What does this fold into?
Amino acid sequence: MILFVVISLLLPLRCKAQKLGQIECGRQEGYAYLYSSLITMEISTTLKCGQRVTVLDRSDNFIHVRTDTGDEGFVPLSNVGFLKPGAMLKAPPAPVKREVTHYDNPARMAASSHPAASAQELLLPNQTAVHLKLGRELSSATAKVGEEVNFEVAEDVVANGHLVIAKGAPAAGAVTEATPKGRIGKAGKLNLTVTSVQLADSEKAPLRSFGIDTSSGQKSGMSLPLAHGKDITLAQGAEVTAYVDGDQHLAASKFAPASASAPAQSANSHP
It folds into this structure.
């Protein structure tokens, strides 16, 4: 009985400790985004590398967290490291130079200074949205995992007054999941990822996109039809949104000034 009481007292403490996490950053990144919603993918603020958070829940490829200041939201799974009971916080990586966005907390960023891009350099910021259209029809009945998928840029992307990604430019991706419909009314599954886009200087910039849950109909960056007991089909021209993977420092001399009359997505605005 005594042993049972001791275990009962310690178990809640252990569960609570296991819900601690730490923000981890990928290459060329000095921060992670905190999304207020998985549907709109609206960014509420940024989190420092090494910052401790409380893990509230997990949803597919995202973790629901709360910061020490009370901010709640969703962080990509790849940006959260789970801490074991009694573990020491990892030392954050060296600061990475980047432009301050309007999502940053002014008080949090006051201690850091980030020089603006020079006249010879353009900055295509991390997480800049790139709007795309699917190049051909895809179906869960015929698609194969690893199959290459082509996209076309639907809207110009401008950085510092220069056209860095032109409308109509090609982008590349692949099928990451393809399951035909089942015999007992189970719907098919289809999941894609976007990996790169061609810049206006013919070089490539890395892109990333988030997974799509075809069974629940939730989306992140892609319009996906919900079909119970049927195969999933994406029509040619289906809209997709991907995001620049890491700050891209570009030579201004390789890019022409953007046309003032042409509609464009500013590289200084984020989803």
